[in-house]
Design brief:
The protein has 4 helices and 6 strands. By secondary structure, the protein is α+β, with helices and mostly antiparallel strands. The radius of gyration is 20 Å and the shape is elongated.
Length: 181
């Protein structure tokens, strides 16, 4: 199983609008690994000084096999979080919310384009080998968290079943067979 989260963190570092700086401590952090969607609120509440979009990757692993037996399909869940511009005119709140959501979609499309470009060189980026970018789905949340609007991106990827039994992974008894329980 490949670690797509590491590649998404690389993108968050290279993409100017996010500009994740893993060496910059709390002030430079713009990429977060979260367990699930319920972890978004604490992350957002900790973003008191950050005014740029951030990215979160869910490390919750979900997968299933199909009858064709060609591997296990896993889901990658990525969140783009965009802060809503603050305004003193309440009648502009709806426009600012819409602007934040549309910016999140633009960022998501740029991430998808970047992944498509990297996918052309799967030898250098094996984590993209089974990623299906044609069926990527996304949707904004109907509610914002502390003036941050999250956009959920879901992609599936195939981890082909090329795993063989390796005797080195198992304890051997005197007869050379695996230990019996």
């Amino acid at each position: 199983m490949y670690r797509l989260d590491n590649l998404i963190e690389q993108w968050a570092t290279e993409f100017k609008l996010v500009s994740h700086n893993p060496e910059g401590g709390a002030d430079g952090k713009r990429f977060f690994r979260i367990d699930s969607i319920s972890d978004l609120k604490p992350v957002i509440l900790s973003l008191t000084k950050i005014k740029t979009p951030v990215v979160a990757y869910s490390t919750q692993i979900e997968g299933s096999s199909n009858e064709g037996g060609n591997g296990t399909y896993y889901l990658a869940n990525i969140y783009i979080l965009v802060p809503q511009e603050k305004t003193t005119a309440p009648y502009r709140e709806d426009l600012n919310a819409a602007n934040a959501k549309y910016l999140a979609v633009e960022i998501a499309e740029k991430l998808k384009a970047w992944l498509m470009e990297k996918k052309k060189n799967e030898k250098q980026y094996p984590e993209l080998r089974g990623l299906n970018l044609k069926t990527a789905a996304m949707g904004s949340f109907p509610k914002h968290f502390n003036n941050w609007w999250p956009l959920h991106i879901q992609m599936d990827y195939l981890n082909a079943d090329y795993v063989c039994v390796n005797p080195e992974d198992y304890h051997q008894d005197e007869a050379g067979e695996g230990a019996q329980s």
